[in-house]
Design a protein that fits this description.
The complex is a heterodimer of chains A (about 600) and B (about 70).
Chain A lengths: L7 E6 L5 E5 L2 H7 L2 H11 L13 E6 L13 E6 L6 E6 L3 H7 L4 E5 L6 E6 L2 E6 L8 H12 L4 E4 L2 H4 L7 E3 L3 E3 L4 H7 L2 E7 L11 H17 L1 H10 L4 H7 L21 H7 L1 E5 L9 E6 L2 E4 L3 H7 L8 H14 L5 H14 L18 H12 L4 H7 L2 H7 L8 E2 L2 E2 L9 H9 L12 H6 L13 H18 L11 H12 L5 H21 L11 H5 L14 H12 L1 E2 L2 E2 L1 H6 L9
Parallel strand pairs in A: 1-6, 7-12
Antiparallel strand pairs in A: 1-2, 3-4, 3-6, 4-5, 7-8, 9-10, 9-12, 10-11, 13-14, 14-15, 16-17, 18-19
Helix pairs in contact in A: 1-2, 2-19, 2-21, 7-8, 7-20, 12-14, 13-16, 14-15, 17-19, 17-23, 19-21, 19-23
Chain B lengths: L1 E5 L10 E4 L7 H7 L9 E4 L2 E2 L11 E5 L6
Parallel strand pairs in B: 1-5
Antiparallel strand pairs in B: 1-2, 3-4, 3-5
The chains are: A alpha+beta (about 600), B mainly beta (about 70).
The complex binds iron/sulfur cluster.
């Protein structure tokens, strides 16, 4: 058996009900690692870039990495890769919990789901057995409840991945949930699952560890080195466990880059009320962790007597400052609603924020709001509109559930949508932090921070402090971060390990587990290759150079308040530098770049 | 006066905000010492929203924000 891969992929055709077992192409796996990289390569080769994302021709790849489930730090991760109905481009949404590890232990590197089932169904996987079962009785059941029901039926040791009502209705902001409160949240992957009438995937396995590591001693040694770094690092060793990602609310606000009221302002004077410190003081029950994670950034909170998964930084900001709301209890509640309906907890509140600005400007009229006006800070609006977006009925429900880009376009104000490639940007103002704007503009999956987390050097000082206000060297940094992230996502580690670990550590772990002999440079080149195959997928899907952009507000409207007052994004200067660093012309790789990266199959495409 | 904002674990025993007399401090490091915070516990030091070093001078009206090592995404 090949180190850390089980060399087995299940191809499930929901139209015919046929389940085929295919052998993993090991050379291809080594060339693209697994997870995000291999998933994209499979879809590119199978011509998925040109299909309608919600048609039976689209495919959903649930894919682990070679490290998923390995005895190494934070390896409980898997990826959902598909063509996004939100962006029309590549989607690869990452999630933790334990589902991915179980899928791997059951002996599967990936599941490829294609077609469309005649009736609602779910997959039941027990080690090497996969069966398709009737899910009609579960239609309309919310995520948490179906998790419990399927565990009752298949055993408490089962792990459940599912879509809620939002995914069933093909809502473009629908997430795929697993283990109750973990989400492959972004780019509307839940809608693709809904379009196939696949409600859930249950996995059980008798395997308790990854038993095919190429060099166990080398992995032990590499893991020890990585664990020492994680423990010694203030962020991964204790900071994230103590306060979770929520601690960022106060930091980002204090550098004047916390987008407020749909990015009309960048400093929120009530940030303290929605901060990680406030969350810890008022609602925290305990920290929680995904499988095999020593960092434990997750939150378990008590919301009105119910103990459940708590909000991360992004929903705290998006339902908080970005909607002008300082009621932490309501943020907790809305975050829980996102989990129950199966909604993206970034895209959903950001679309509500855009709707609130449309309402402020008189574009959305009170009579359209069915009794719940979209006023800034209205807690009733946040709760009610989240529910409506999760299970839409009226025209405005449907428009809002399709994301801010389509919503604002409909009202003739496309620039109110704070999105890139139709996906909402996250919680860092790219006017106050120059490098993150490059990440947003060039991310292959649209507005996103975790495809090259420039906040780490520009604000947190990791691995070194860069001046957030200048553009020098930012393009090269962004490229390196993007490439390393592609590697981490493809291996199956959590990205948060990279606060403490660097490319040498990942290289050692990968070599030990898979039996490869890559150098650090070669591993980063794989990351570069993955970034480029994603870009070529997007090109085939119809992406245009002008899609690498930021909303006008960030380029032309200087920040109006707080410490970063007066700043705008310098993207017009950094974007050409970035393309040069990548070997791209007009947003796409040159033939020379493709050749250098071993992507000959993409040349001339 | 100088407004010193403390965050995360640095609040323990020190509160959220301290108002200090500017004339008693030459630089941010003096404030950190005055608050009895071990230097290595301060991972992020902001003066008026911009990253600075402990030796950066402080003056009346400044806002100094201190954070321990923290991260997220
Ligand atoms: S750091 Fe947080 S998100 Fe990452 S694996 Fe650990 S608990 Fe999960």
């Amino acid at each position: 058996m090949a180190g850390a891969y089980y060399e087995k992929i299940a191809r499930i055709n929901l139209t015919t009900g046929e389940i085929k077992i295919e052998k993993l192409d090991l050379d291809l796996a080594h060339k693209f690692i697994g997870g995000r990289g291999l998933g994209t390569k499979i879809l590119y080769d199978e011509g998925v870039a040109t299909v309608d994302p919600l048609s039976p021709e689209n495919k959903l790849v649930y894919i682990t990495g070679p490290m998923t489930g390995a005895a190494a730090p934070s390896t409980g991760r898997y990826m959902v890769v598909t063509k996004s109905p939100l962006t029309g481009m590549i989607a690869s949404s990452n999630s933790g919990g334990i589902w991915g590890q179980k899928l791997k232990y059951a002996g599967w590197d990936a599941l490829i789901v294609e077609g469309e089932a005649p009736e609602w169904c779910y997959l039941n996987i027990v080690d090497d057995k996969i069966e398709l079962l009737d899910a009609r009785e579960y239609v309309g059941v919310k995520s948490e409840e179906i998790d419990e029901k399927l565990k009752e039926k298949h055993g408490a040791d089962a792990s459940v991945l599912n879509i809620g009502p939002a995914g069933e209705k093909k809502v473009l902001l629908a997430a795929i949930m697993n283990d109750k409160d973990r989400a492959a949240g972004r780019s509307g992957v839940g809608a693709v699952m809904g379009s196939k009438k696949l409600k859930a995937i249950v996995v059980k396995t008798s395997r308790t560890k990854l038993d095919n590591i190429a060099d166990i001693d080398a992995l032990k040694a590499a893991t020890k080195r990585s664990m020492d770094l994680i423990k010694a690092n203030g962020v991964t060793g204790s900071g994230l466990r103590a306060l979770g990602t929520a601690v960022l609310v106060n930091i980002i606000n204090n550098v004047g880059s916390l987008p407020t009221r749909n990015w009309q302002e960048s400093y929120y004077d009530q940030a303290e009320d929605i901060s990680g410190e406030a969350l810890a003081e008022k609602y925290l029950v305990r920290p929680s962790a995904c499988a095999r994670c020593p960092i434990a950034c997750g939150r378990v909170v008590n919301i009105n007597g119910k103990v459940a998964g708590g909000p991360e930084y992004e929903p705290l900001w998006a339902y908080g400052a970005n909607c002008g709301n300082n009621d932490l209890n309501v943020i907790d509640e809305c975050n829980m609603l996102c989990n129950e309906y199966g909604l993206d907890a970034i895209g959903t509140p950001c679309t509500i924020a855009a709707a609130m600005e449309l309402y402020q400007r008189g574009a959305i009229k009170e009579e359209e709001c069915a009794g719940v006006p979209l006023e800034w800070g209205s807690t009733k609006a946040l709760i009610e509109w989240t529910k409506r977006m999760g299970d839409p009925e009226t025209e405005l429900d449907w428009l809002m559930s399709s994301g801010s880009a389509r919503l604002c376009e409909h009202y003739g104000m496309p620039e109110i949508s704070m999105s890139v490639k139709k996906q909402e940007m996250p919680a860092y103002d790219a006017r106050g932090i120059q490098g993150i704007g490059i990440t947003y503009a060039t991310s292959n999956r649209g507005g996103c921070h975790v495809r090259g987390y420039m906040i780490s050097p520009e604000v947190l000082g990791l691995p070194q402090q860069l001046d957030r206000t200048v553009i020098d060297e930012k393009a090269a940094w962004a490229k390196t971060f993007q490439d390393l992230t592609a590697v981490i996502d493809s291996m199956g580690h959590c990205l948060f390990t990279s606060f403490a670990m660097g490319a040498p550590e990942y290289t050692d772990l990968l070599n030990a587990a898979t039996g490869t002999n890559w150098t650090v440079e070669q591993v980063l080149e794989i990351g570069d290759r993955i970034y480029n195959i994603e870009r070529m997928f997007n090109k085939a899907a119809g992406m245009k150079p002008e899609d690498d952009r930021l909303p006008k507000r960030l380029l032309q409207e200087p920040i109006v308040n707080g410490p970063s007052k007066g700043m705008v994004s310098q993207l017009p200067l950094t974007l050409p530098q970035y393309y040069e660093a990548r070997g791209w012309v007009n947003a796409f790789p040159t033939d020379e770049t493709l050749k250098k990266l071993g992507l000959d199959e993409c040349i001339g495409k | 006066m100088i407004e010193v904002r403390l965050f995360a674990t640095l609040r323990e025993g020190r509160g959220k905000i301290q108002m200090l007399n500017a004339s008693e401090f030459a630089c941010a490091g003096d404030i950190i010492r005055h608050l009895d915070i071990p230097t290595e516990e301060v991972a992020i030091l902001l003066i008026n929203g911009f990253h600075q070093k402990p030796e950066t001078p402080v003056k009346d009206g400044d806002i100094v924000a201190l954070f321990p090592p923290v991260g997220g995404g």
